[in-house]
Amino acid sequence: MKKYQAALATSAWLILLLCACRNGGDAPQLQGDEQVSSTGDADVLPPVEVYDSVLGPVAPAVTEPEETPSPQQTPIPVAPFYPESCAAIKKARPEALSGPYKIYLDANLETRQAIDASCDMQTDGGGWTLMLSYNHKGGTTPALAARTENLPLLGSDILGEDESTKPLFWGHAGNVLFTKFASAKELRFYCRSSQNTRVVHFKTSESTCLAAARTGQGNCLSVRNSFTALTGHSASIPGNINRSDSNQLNFVLTFNPFGRTIDNAPDVMWSIAGDAGLNTWECDFGSDSAAFHTIHRVWFR
């Protein structure tokens, strides 16, 4: 009898459920021991699904595995830089400015020696190394300084400064020292004086003049056929020269390296303590004296 009553109650509940679904109503709730699952197990709930109102169902977040760190790369070693001239510095660092730098004698040897050099990184493309500098005070006859171990540095541009008392700025590279700069292919000459307003400023790659500067033998006469005037050049030499004293050893670039002989007048010269017995200091003029202020400079590249 009890089994018949339970079956009848279940049938009635199913009829009510069917009617509610057809009429759009709510399903009746089971009470007490009527709350069972389809499997007969009580209180078994379906898995919860994460849901976003815009995106819909959202998959559970997945934790990414940590990336394995890549091995650190070994830094590439930087080769030592031993520039043998200002031109080498300019080539390696085109943005380099004019001023003092360290360059190296015998740069490719273990016995290399660092020295100071004045570099002109602007004129005619830059890369010029100062090898001769004499700012002479008129009326004086100081001795020259042929250097064997280092170069003069750039001093004052004011005419009349007596730099003979400042060894750092006074002197020139002798033959042996200049030979160490084997890469030098050009010379640049500059001078002016208080005697006139003309300026000597030119460059040359004339081979016999370069050889004379290295060996002390020969002269620079052929420069008249192989030079380029640079900014400010207004002098008559070297285009019209007919004189160049030869075989002056350490003084090839100081003792009348080029000038013009004029009848019945002093020769128009580049002269730094030149002319034996006269000690002349001249820049595109002839005075046969040391009466005027002069500035003479030579650079190589």
Whole-number radius of gyration? 47 Å
Calculate the terminal CA-CA distance, rounded to whole Å. Answer: 125 Å
Query: How many domains in all?
Result: 1
Order of helices and strands: HEEHEEEEEHEEHEEEEE
Structural class: alpha+beta
User: Which spans have pLDDT < 50 for at least 5 consecutive residues?
Assistant: 1-62
Globular, elongated, flat, extended or rod-shaped: what is the shape? Answer: elongated
How many beta-strand segments? 14
Helix content: 10-25%
Write the layout of secondary structure elements.
Blueprint: H1 2-22, E1 51-52, E2 56-57, H2 86-92, E3 99-105, E4 113-120, E5 128-136, E6 146-147, E7 171-173, H3 175-179, E8 187-193, E9 200-204, H4 207-215, E10 228-229, E11 258-260, E12 268-274, E13 280-285, E14 294-300
Parallel strand pairs: 6-7
Antiparallel strand pairs: 1-2, 3-4, 4-5, 5-7, 5-14, 8-9, 8-14, 9-10, 11-12, 12-13
